[in-house]
Write a structure and sequence with these properties.
This protein is of the alpha+beta class and 313 residues long. The chain has helices spanning 2-9, 22-28, 39-54, 59-78, 105-118, 125-158, 212-217, 238-243, 247-255, and strands at residues 165-172, 179-186, 189-196, 229-232, 259-267, 270-277, 290-295, 301-308, 311-312. The strands form two sheets. Strands 5-6-7-8-9 form a five-stranded antiparallel β-sheet. Strands 1-2-3-4 form a four-stranded antiparallel β-sheet, with helices on one face.
Length: 313
């Protein structure tokens, strides 16, 4: 059990990179520690290590445990929308199935509660845990079905745009498997909307004093009645073109799924361009991972970096 828990945590050991530089974390999180190609080698190394630590000559027993645990960790990460580089180091594409929000209490409850109950059972504990896995599979299939319904809403909106559509997506949202953020990307724009597949009426208006949960609830609209916000991907600005030559901006475009130019401002000989990944944007609630570039009148880059919560990092 100790060996399995240790291996379950191992792939996320890449979080330590964030202590050195945030960009390192963004670049390498869910990278080589989550690679299907490297998992067999991780299993071999840690099996040898645990044989040495435990003084128990059960190398292949450890290996079977580690292989199953590592594969299940990566599989579960694929269910989210963050993106996992399962073929690292040979292929850096981030795969994401967009089925489950990164913190899903229903998903966690199906696993954790039966596991806790099994500790108090003298008989039948294995069947309780097996039943939780069956329940988890049913829940994932349910989320897959809801994801398909949400994609229908995005495609319905895209048909009325009169623009060539590059991609559509539906990303899971916190709190409910019925809530989805919808995205339609065209050559010039990214469109974002929010749907609650069970909602019948439009949300109630909110005030500045409204709670976080009220503001979150107000984002989601019923099917076929979804207001979409439009973001221009690339304004015609010489400062944007200059900013795009930055290595930091190139990295941002590699990481971002729906990158847009958030703003272009010029003051006192300084020209600031801000880029945003609409994937992480919740209107009035969250604006994370904005990358800025500041240039002078000659087009030289004077500063750049990640802005979070109004602070430069």
């Amino acid at each position: 059990m100790v060996a399995g828990l240790a291996m379950g945590a191992f792939p996320d050991a890449d979080f330590v990179l964030g202590f050195f530089k945030r960009q390192l974390f963004l670049q390498y999180h869910r990278d080589f520690t989550h690679s299907f190609l490297l998992i067999p080698f991780y299993g071999l190394f840690f099996s040898w290590l645990f044989v040495k630590i435990s003084k128990r000559p059960h190398f292949w027993s450890f290996y079977k445990i580690f292989l199953y645990v590592l594969l299940s960790h990566v599989f579960l990460d694929l269910l989210t929308s963050y993106g996992t580089m399962i073929f690292s180091p040979f292929f850096e594409h981030r795969f994401a199935w967009d089925l489950v929000f990164i913190i899903d209490l229903i998903f966690s409850g199906i696993l954790v509660l039966p596991w806790l109950v099994s500790f108090f059972l003298k008989q039948g504990a294995q069947w309780v845990c097996r039943g939780s896995l069956v329940g988890l599979a049913v829940y994932i299939l349910f989320c897959w079905f809801q994801h398909g319904e949400a994609l229908k809403e995005a495609r319905h909106f895209s048909k009325g745009l009169g623009e060539k559509v590059i991609q559509v997506a539906a990303l899971p949202q916190p709190g409910s498997p019925y809530r989805w953020a919808l995205y339609v990307e065209t050559k010039a724009n990214v469109y974002q909307g929010f749907v609650d597949l069970t909602r019948k009426d439009a949300p109630e208006p909110i005030s500045p004093q409204s709670s976080f949960f009220s503001r979150l609830d107000s984002l989601y609209y019923p099917s076929r009645n979804i207001p979409f916000q439009s973001w221009e991907k690339m304004p015609d600005s010489p400062w944007v073109k200059k900013a795009l030559t930055s290595e930091g901006v190139k990295f941002f475009y590699w990481f971002a799924r729906f990158p847009v130019v958030k703003s272009v401002n010029s003051t006192d000989g300084r020209h600031r361009v801000e880029f945003m990944d609409v994937r992480f944007y919740l209107p009035g609630i969250r604006l994370p991972f904005v990358y800025y570039v500041e240039l002078d009148d000659s087009g030289q880059i004077r500063s750049e970096g990640i802005v979070e919560d109004g602070r430069r990092l």
